[in-house]
Write a structure and sequence with these properties.
The protein is of the alpha/beta class. The protein is 32% helix and 19% strand. It has a single domain, classed as Aconitase, domain 4, CATH 3.20.19.10.
């Protein structure tokens, strides 16, 4: 299955380097209901994030996004809040794999954190491996392999396996 139309546009939520899985999914709330857990996503670095993020918005960050534990809830919380994609200068490997597995697009784009502006419009094209900023600047990202694009186009590993199982 070849993905098409995998382009997302939204508001930029700019973060720095070393955004850990504990910032994305604080362990202190692990036993609380999902609504409580989601209310605390990124509260230590962007207290307004959980209440302000809108479906289709894009998280942009510096280096080593998703570092720390292999907490699968970290990318899931972003997806549950409506984040369309995460663009960062680099990702912790386990975070990027978990994100793709649950259907959250992640794209590595050198220098994006220094070029993107918080709150401005951003467009992410997974098909082209490109990020377009509000001022018209186009940044070349590392295009995801076809297999990962296929998983994303199907909504993640579980929906993909369900689809395959129905054949």
């Amino acid at each position: 299955m070849s993905p098409s139309g995998m382009t997302f546009s939204g508001k930029t939520w700019l973060l720095g380097d070393n955004i850990s899985t504990d910032l994305l999914s604080p362990g202190h709330y692990v036993h609380d209901p999902m609504t409580v857990r989601l209310a605390h996503v990124l509260e230590a670095v962007r207290p307004e994030f959980a209440g302000g993020v809108q479906p289709g918005d894009v998280v942009v960050a510096g280096k080593n996004f998703g570092c720390g534990s292999s907490r699968e809830s970290a990318p899931q919380h972003l997806k549950d809040l409506g984040v369309a994609a995460v663009v960062a200068e680099s990702f912790a490997r386990i975070f990027s794999r978990n994100a793709i597995a649950i259907g959250l697009p992640v794209l590595t784009c050198p220098f994006v954190a220094g070029r993107a502006r918080d709150g401005e419009a951003i467009t992410v094209s997974l098909d082209q491996g490109e990020v377009m900023l509000a001022d018209g600047t186009r940044l070349q990202a590392e295009r995801l392999p076809e297999a990962m694009l296929d998983v994303l186009a199907r909504g993640g590993i579980v929906p993909m396996l369900r689809e395959i199982g129905r054949r």
